Amino acid sequence: MTAPIALTVGEPAGIGPEIAVQAWEALRGELAFFWIGDPRHLPQGANWQEISAPRAAHDIMSSALPVLRHDFAGDRVPGQPDASNAQGVIDAIARAVRLVRSGDAAALCTAPIHKKALKDGADFAYPGHTEYLAALAGAQRAVMMLASDQLRVVPTTIHIPLAEVPAALTPELLEDTIRITHAALQKDFGVKAPRIAVAGLNPHAGEGDAMGHEDSQRIAPVLETLRREGLDLRGPLPADTMFHAAARARYDAAVAMYHDQALIPIKTLDFDRGVNVTLGLPFIRTSPDHGTAFDIAGTGTANPTSLIEALRLAARMAKTRAD
């Protein structure tokens, strides 16, 4: 029997606890997962049952949300993060990583955190979830992929101003991103011979250097080097013609040069079902592609679709690795 998936609480004041219960209701007959958090933070009347070990989730899943108890210092007030809970959020993530690395959990799915709350309450030293997970895993670099049934896309640079992208977009960074993406497509998605489309940085991929030299001088040489090793790479391609249906049919993943170049297409195509996947870690990690949504926390209006898809994808990736 495969190990269940670990789902962390994330920021208790956000929608994480609510959508965890909704995800259990949707998936109770499909796959097994357990929630790591403080039961006091679950919505009133939620159907949950405490477990003493992850594998007990298989026996509980059909009748109640399995909860691996992790007590926090404060209560939950929807929409109002409590600084006293910050260390609990951080520790729950670290505990989940230990369980995945030991084999007690098959994969990690994380509910959204609120970075400012963690910094204010526990002097959190990382820009976000991904960097913290990479540090826990001892990974040199982790890469973000946004995935849905319609598109998989990887931004090479992420949370930096657009003006800083050209300088940050080094050949080494691009090569590393493509290699990590290629390996993940094989290992986690079961694509034996990955086809990767690579976007140009400038409009029309530079149009023969008429609109910038980065595409011909910085991107194209990296692709040529990797092609000589046998990687199936297309590009640099004009980003404005990469994401229509016929173009998407010709590749298994797209590598973009900056945040919005990657995220606008997938959020336009499949806003609710997009899943954030972290590549380059020694374990599987997925998360919903949204934030804590403090403005609707506690109102009963949160949409659990992205979390449901994140748990499903984690289960499929775990099966691919096991096969």
Structural overview:
- This is 4-hydroxythreonine-4-phosphate dehydrogenase.
- It catalyses: 4-(phosphooxy)-L-threonine + NAD(+) = 3-amino-2-oxopropyl phosphate + CO2 + NADH.
- It is a single chain.
- It contains eleven helices and twelve strands.
- By secondary structure, it is α/β, with parallel strands linked by helices.
- Helix 1 (16-27) crosses helix 11 (305-322) and helix 3 crosses helix 4.
- It is globular.
- The model has no long low-confidence stretch (mean pLDDT 95).
Going by CATH, what is the homologous superfamily of the largest domain? Answer: Isopropylmalate Dehydrogenase
Indicate how many domains the architecture comprises: 2
CATH topology of the largest domain: Isopropylmalate Dehydrogenase
Largest sheet: 12 strands, mixed
> Using DSSP, what is the number of strands?
12
Alpha-carbon distance between the termini? 13 Å
DSSP helix count? 11
Strand content is 15-25%
Low-pLDDT runs: none
GO molecular function: 4-hydroxythreonine-4-phosphate dehydrogenase activity; cobalt ion binding; magnesium ion binding; NAD binding; zinc ion binding
Cofactor: Zn(2+); Mg(2+); Co(2+)
Function: Catalyzes the NAD(P)-dependent oxidation of 4-(phosphooxy)-L-threonine (HTP) into 2-amino-3-oxo-4-(phosphooxy)butyric acid which spontaneously decarboxylates to form 3-amino-2-oxopropyl phosphate (AHAP).
Keywords: Cobalt, Cytoplasm, Magnesium, Metal-binding, NAD, NADP, Oxidoreductase, Pyridoxine biosynthesis, Zinc
